[in-house]
Amino acid sequence: MSLAMTSSTPQQLARPIVKATATPLKPILKSSSLLNSKRTSDDAGFDGDGMESPQSPRKRQRVEFDMNNIEVHEIGIRSVDEVKQEIRKALDRHDQGDDEDYDILKQTLSGKQSPYDDEEDEDPDPTLPAKRRQELKIYLIALASFSPRLGRSCDGLVKGVLQCQWLGRDEQFAKVYVQFLAALVSAQGARLTQVLSSIVDRFTDSRPSDWAVPNYPTVNRETVQERLHVALQYLIKLFPAAKPVLEHLTATKYPFHDESKRMHLAYVDNLLRLRSYCPDLKTEIMDLIISRLVKIDVEMQMDLDDMDDRLTTMVAMALRSARENRNQDEEDDDESDAESVDSDESEDDEYTRVKTAKENIEKMDSILDTLFELYTPSFADPDSDEALEAFEDLLSEFSNLILPTIKSRHTQFLIFHFGQKSERLMDAFCGTCINIAFESQRPMILQQAASAYLASFVARGAHVPGHIVVKIFEVLGFHLDQMRSLYEISCRGPDVRRYAPFYALVQALMYVFCFRWPDLIKSVPDEVDTDDLSSYLGQEIEWEPEIKDIMRRNIHSKLNPLKVCSPAIVEQFAKLAHQFGFMYVYPTIESNKRLRLSQFSAGAYSSGGALRDLSFDMNDESWQHKRWVEHDYLQWRPIPGLDRDEQDEDSDEEEHDDENEEVEEDTATDDEAGEDE
User: Where is the composition biased (Acidic residues) (predicted)?
Assistant: First the structure.
């Protein structure tokens, strides 16, 4: 949900922090007597009395900066008043078209050059280098007084200040710098976007070299992030109009999909920190992260689909090698990655494809790790309101971003894992999928996807209890009967274009049956050992009421779903159903081999291809390699003796007698050729 820009200007939202007079400043810093006091335990500082650190995503933050007066007359070599005179002179001459002093001022305020760099000292003072490093503080304090003059004519000067490397300097400098930003926006409201942009630009920084300043002690990453977000928090508090601006900036500055894992992780981490103290952007930030994660997921899947077995094996080997070397220092990894990109430009296309796929997989895995870490504390008590609230957020992301995206296969691990934490959460997920699958105003492709996800969750969810499996099967069966009754009125044969929701639902139920058939059984003889699946073979099994009738009515209907659904699923269903005495569908399958659909349902539609993209691979066990759902995912369990050929001899003879026959069956669209559906 986008936030509307407030009509108030930044000048109206907060009074100027500094005035263009000689009166004492009112900065974030405490009184001058504390300028040289010992650092507090908070490395990032900013002396926010009563302010909580913007780290925990569990609490809404309160920002209460100490705005006591500070009289800073001399930090470095000259006083504030002296520097003010210099700045006034440079700005006055700039207005008159003389930019010599103005250009020097730009260089100084960018932090790249001191006004004394070219001077020689006759009597060197050993403390002089330290004093000169403090010069920029004086310039920023003085420049804040001239904020009302820093309009469009001073774009170059402002740009230089915003490009100054302030995060890697000392704590006092960081405070002075943030005070200047607040004063600038207070006086020049149009610069709000420019100021916030300079901060969001730092979201991808993650190595000391990104913020290091010569002759300053190294500042660690945590301190840098803390300074960055205390500053952003402060500006948001002063200027509510910053929120919609930030929503736009965080989206436009999100790293491109082909940028490094390091940049993506740093950006996501900073977005989550912003989310922790800016609840108005909580939904928008998570939408952004999930949507970009889905894009990486899809691209990765498409890359792998286009590879042959040899290349996918190379990807697996590259990932294994990377995991084995993960004990190497992270900084070294980052540097070596950067070097390898340059050195790999001359490599062949195959190597580039493997390298790209590997990097996308690692990128996706790392972001998912971050999201699992974020959400896990909320599900400590799966039956709590907190857990339900967090899961509703995930359901929103699932419904709006994951569900509509074909070929997204891994982002849904979040919903698959946390959705099994309690029956209350299972009910929420199943209910959401059912509502989407059977709301007529929904796009057909979305209805099919909802059926597929629901079936996959129920079939493969290791913690989904049997009574829920039965309940979902019956609910889906009820809707399936309603569809059949509606479609059969005009049906003259299978037509996937017209009856796609029906076929998707039949396929979903067959898939659930293949994995959860033991849960659909009401009773078995005492001879059956429930731990030995082969012991069910040849036994008189009593199925749950309506289960068998649901499948019989719909599979043997005029819509003929076995002709349209995925051949792999149809084959496995037929085998299990026959061996356990549930149904015997081989005659229909054999008959369908001689059935050719009309041209309107040809191609991928005639072999279930249109449904497979939304469905399931019976042999897909990729999830078992993913640590997030390792214990949540029900793997395929082969049944000893099930594969022996026990098909009816009559069916076998029928196949040989009629193997060259072909029957053409009309579909409901034959009389509507050329019409848009």
Answer: 116-125, 329-350, 645-677
Residue 461 DSSP class: B
Token pair of 350 as six digits? 């195959």
DSSP 587-629: HHHHHHHTEEE-GGG-GGGGGTHHHHTTS--TT--GGGG-GGG
Q: Whole-model pTM?
A: 0.79
Quick one: residue 463, left, alpha or beta (phi over 0 = left, psi -120 to 50 = alpha)?
Answer: alpha
Q: What amino acid occupies position 319?
A: L
- pLDDT at residue 672 in the model: 40
DSSP, res 52: P
In this structure, are residues 52 and 62 in contact, taking their beta carbons and an 8 Å threshold? yes
Nearest-angstrom CA–CA distance, 154 and 160: 10
Give the pLDDT of residue 603. Answer: 37
| Continuous H helices in 523-585 | 547-555, 561-564, 567-579
Q: How confident is the model at residue 133 (pLDDT cuts 50, 70, 90)?
A: low
Whole-angstrom distance, CA of residue 459 vs CA of residue 618? 11
Q: Provide CB contacts within 8 A for 147, sequence distance 6+.
A: 16, 18, 20, 183, 184, 186, 187, 188
**Two structure tokens written together for 577:** 């159903």
Count the alpha carbons within 13 Å of 546 in the hemisphere toward its beta carbon.
11
Q: Is the pLDDT of residue 24 over 80?
A: no
**What is the pLDDT confidence band of residue 54, given thresholds at 50, 70 and 90?**
very low
Q: Is 639 exposed, middle or buried (0-12, 13-18, 19+ CB in 10 A)?
A: middle
**Which pLDDT tens digit goes with each residue over 184-221?**
999 999 999 999 999 999 999 999 999 999 888 999 99
pLDDT tens for 429-444 read: 999 999 999 988 888 8
3-state SS track over 64-92: CCCCCCECCCECCCCEHHHHHHHHHHHHH
Q: Are 103 and 115 in contact (CB under 8 A)?
A: no
Helix axes 496-516, 466-487, angle to 10 degrees: 160
User: Which spans in 517-560 are helix H?
Assistant: 547-555
In the three-class reduction of DSSP (H, G, I as helix; E, B as strand; rest coil), residue 447 is classed as: helix
